[in-house]
Amino acid sequence: VPASMAMGYFHASPVLVFATACLAVLPLASLMGEATEHVAARTGPTIGGLLNATFGNAAELIIAIMGLRAAARVIADPAKVATYINVVKASITGSIIGNLLLILGLAFVAGGLKRPVLRFNRTSTGMSAGMLFLSVVSLVLPALYHVVHRTDADLRLDERTISLEMSVVLLLTY
């Protein structure tokens, strides 16, 4: 972490700063995971799960909060607002899809190697499917609005408003 901060301060190559920051995140993520497991052992599965979901995806939450704050600061520049909102939506949607599909798929493969029949929690699966559906709708709705109202400049403002609102909904449901 100090190396990436120093490189950023001294204006090193952005690729090098990014690479060192990525390497710095790995042990920090492991420590964060251990800490939330210890807290979950004392607080119970509900609070532990909430802490694990929150801190386990801290990067996405930080990106979302900073992106929405930056969009609010440049509200006069529609192109920048749209860019920030798209970054927020893509970050949260990517995290949801990654957690639901990649992690779940790997868990199914690992579980299937040890057991012939796997059992799962119906409530958790339903909630995950709902989150996946919400993330898809949040990307499709503004795009569909754009296709339908492609030429009207006033309606483009509505499209950005829809995108901003969907970003906030995704952040809250996340």
Key features?
mainly alpha, 7 helices, 174 residues
Secondary-structure map with pairings?
Elements: H1 2-9, H2 14-43, H3 45-56, H4 58-73, H5 78-114, H6 122-148, H7 153-173
Major β-sheet profile? none
Number of separate strands: 0
Q: Give the averaged pLDDT, no decimals.
A: 81
Structural class: mainly alpha
Radius of gyration: 20 Å
Q: Helical content, roughly?
A: over 70%
Which range does the strand content fall in?
Answer: under 5%
Please count the helical segments: 7
Which H/E pattern describes the elements? HHHHHHH
Shape, per Cα inertia axes: globular
Low-confidence stretches: none
**First and last CA, distance:** 27 Å
What would you say this structure looks like, in words?
There is one protein chain. It is built from seven helices and no strands. It is globular, with a radius of gyration of 20 Å. Helix 5 packs antiparallel against helix 6. The mean pLDDT is 81. The protein is mainly alpha-helical and 174 residues long.
What can be said about this structure in brief?
This protein has 174 residues and is an all-alpha fold. It contains seven helices and no strands.
